[in-house]
Amino acid sequence: MTKVIIIGGGWAGCAAAISAKKAGGDVTIIEKTDMLLGLGNVGGIMRNNGRYTAAEESIHLGAGELFNICDKVSRHVDIDFPGHNHASLYDVNKIEPLVKKQLEDLGISILTCRRVTDVVKVKNKITKVVLSDKSHIEGDVFIETTGSTGPMGNCLKYGNGCAMCILRCPSYGPRVSITERCGIEDVLGQRNNGSYGAFSGSCKLNKETLSKDLQKELNDKGVVILTVPKEDVNLEKLDLKVCQQYSLKEFAEKIILLDTGHAKLMTPFYPLDKLRKIKGLENVKFEDPYSGGLGNSIRYLSIAPRYNNMKVEGIDNLLCGGEKSGFFVGHTEAIVTGSLAGHNSIRLSLGMPLLELPRNLASGDIIAYANEETKSIEGLKKRFTFAGSIYFNRMKELGLYTIDKEKIKDKIIRLGLLNIYEDKIV
Amino acid sequence: MNKRLLCIDAGSEYCPCYLAETGDCITCSILRGQDFCDCNWRGSCIYSEFVWNDYVKKNSRKFYSSKILKKESLGNEVYLLKIETTKTLARQLKQPGAYIFIRGEGLPQFFDVPMSIMQANEKEGYVYIVYKVLGTKTKRLNESDNILIRGPYWNGIYGLNNIKTLKNNNCLLIARGVAQAPTLLLINKIVKNNNITLILDKGKLEDNFILNYLSHKNIEIIFIDTMKYKEQEYIKEIMIDKKIDFVFSAGSDIFHKKIIELIDEIDPSINISATNNSEICCGEGVCGACSAHLENEGSVKGCKTQIDIRELIKRRVNID
């Protein structure tokens, strides 16, 4: 049986594990912290704008498990907020154990609190990964889904220092770039001013510290919009963000809170004293990152050069997914790329041709488009998400955006890809 | 692959040091001028410490003038010194691999010579060292009642990670000559939770002086001349009979090489730690006297870097 080793247990790693398992692999996820999902533990936004299309595509391609869990624990469905329609907000406090159970039920082995620090390579092939406790884990195919966030030195050099986010580098140790360890140079994202990296785009407030009225409104509607005092509007901050879909003027002049179990605040960070000037937020506290008044994690410093089938260029048995595979933003994007990498890991081990998603699917187009753009200097400043900004515009222009489930299903049947991720191929 | 090395001082109160200021940090890739993090993580971010310290190093170790409480000749130009220290320094030195620099009072700093700690008493504030008169520095050590000391330093043993994880192991410690001194701190550290067999070779000493300081009942001590072929065969028998899974080699680099060869004939997976025999001069990774040129890592500073003894011996002894 093909032994697939997945490094990083975020959304992309979990998605890769499921599709690799279903294709017949013996799958192990190695995760440095004590929880799966990584930043997914503080995320929550699904199905907004083009993500709806992508989610349905994945479901019909046969990778529906994770979307179904998100739908099941959504606190709110079909809500609108500035620039965004028909969003679902999953409950970040409930999602992780459910995903973990799903993976365990499928027979995927999950190693938590174990951190990969190096690889052992023979020519262009990885034979095993080395863990921080000096132990080794061998495998036939490896998938890197370590993301691109942190560690502390990067968050300090390109941000405002460690803000104590969910990744908890000081406790669990830093992310290590597997491709870099293989001697492959990472691609780096840039901001408009040419500096590297970008801040994570949102922070979370402890919901119980909002005023009773705000709590009620948030629980009822899923979204609350507050006005920023004029003297505190900071348009420059929009440029810091990774999430260009939320870099709208409205997000600078308004405070947008979404109910994901926490109150998700759609800004990278916000000084606490200024935040507390706003009605209803007088006693507010940050939940993630703990120092959300000061900064947030820095991302996009570690992108692997890859093909559209998710195989990493230059290494024979390494694939990648999620943020590691391009300037992607979001859980949906992670699941889409991770699922493909997982499925292709088994094909790769068998010497079969690898699957490339066709470009008349949003999922296939974003993977190929991100790859093309990453090769240009201007492209290094772009971020790609079904949910907004340039890529959602492109989806609309190309007619890829639809929320008609039947239409999406028909298209996938027509392409001969219905439930392709369900096929056991080994 | 980029080199990733372990600095003994990383995360300590002396980190970041001069090497951070000059862009030569052993551990932090950003402080070596690279754009991104790729460190070997010692539980804290050196770059972050450096920035919080306003881009300057932390305070370095200072000199103390200390009383020599006892001087004892052990014959053959070997001396034992009992040196007064602060209680804090004694506590910091009470771990395997600890060493200090000493020099006679009134001498310039280039007379500093590194000395392994044999025993440290943090309750009363003193340490024991043993040295053999060999060169210019040691010849001028014994001339005054006071002595200048600088410390603590910790990299006197390579393979400290192997020592940290020892528990219920069958340990073989092989010590020759003056290198018996650093073996004592190791014994005190691991004796509670491990089975210890100690091979003593007095080498050029008159006596195995360490015996006067060994009060442990549960250590088997064997006396042999490790340089004799027949007795080397005996060491191999011990390794097999006692199911040894950890070896500490205390002696010269040639001695280390012999021990490694013996181990490799039995079981190359046996963990090794060994005394650091680099010619350490400043202890701060600055002067370069202790540099070793390793196959993959290039030039590495032996005073601060934890080096795999196999790699080191492969280069140093074989090239010498």
From TrEMBL, chain A:
The cofactors named for this UniProt entry are: FAD
Question: Which InterPro entries does the entry mention?
Answer: FAD/NAD-bd_sf, MnmG_N
Q: Name one Pfam family in it.
A: GIDA
- Top-rank taxon: Bacteria
Q: List residues of the MnmG N-terminal domain.
A: 3-222, 275-351
Which UniProt key words apply to this protein?
A: FAD, Flavoprotein
Q: What is this protein called?
A: FAD-dependent oxidoreductase
Q: Which organism is it from?
A: Anaeromonas frigoriresistens
Q: What are the leading ranks of the lineage?
A: Bacteria, Bacillati, Bacillota, Tissierellia, Tissierellales
